[in-house]
Amino acid sequence: MHRVPLSLLLSLLVVPVGFGQSTSTNSQVTEALLTEIRQLRLELQGTAATIQRVQIVMYRLQAQADVLNRATGREDHAREECNQAQQQRTYLTRQIEAFQTRLQGAQNAQEKSAAEQAIANFRSNLEVLAAEDTECRARATEAEIQLRAEQAKMSDLEDQLDKLDKILEKSGK
Q1: pTM, whole model, 2 decimals?
Q2: 112 exposed, middle or buried (CB, 10 Å; 0-12, 13-18, 19+)?
Q3: For residue 10, is it within any domain?
């Protein structure tokens, strides 16, 4: 009879120790899981913020690309105007030379007068083109400066995007 109560007593002593260990182990596991969940939440928030920054930079990059394309178009247009003005100047200079040759070989006063009048008109046009050429070159220089500024802005945005890409790459590892 002593054996039953003693074994019952021993089992009652062992069971609470087992429950105590289980509770402690469960509490540690729960705490570890909570810590990991909190860490994952922080990492997810950081990644979400970085992704939002990437989206903002991508939007700015797209807008800057449009601005850069317009600046490139203005610069190309200004250069084309300058090239056309230069071609017109070359043409007028050749016409003046041709009419000076005609003037030297003129047989009568009417041919001489017509050649002199044509030369005067060409020179007048050449002076106008010289003034326009100066303005054109100023516009072309201004357009080139603006283009370089827009290219620098685009480069800065690309650098920001590269940095954000590296951040996301690191967080992915």
Answers
A1: 0.63
A2: middle
A3: no
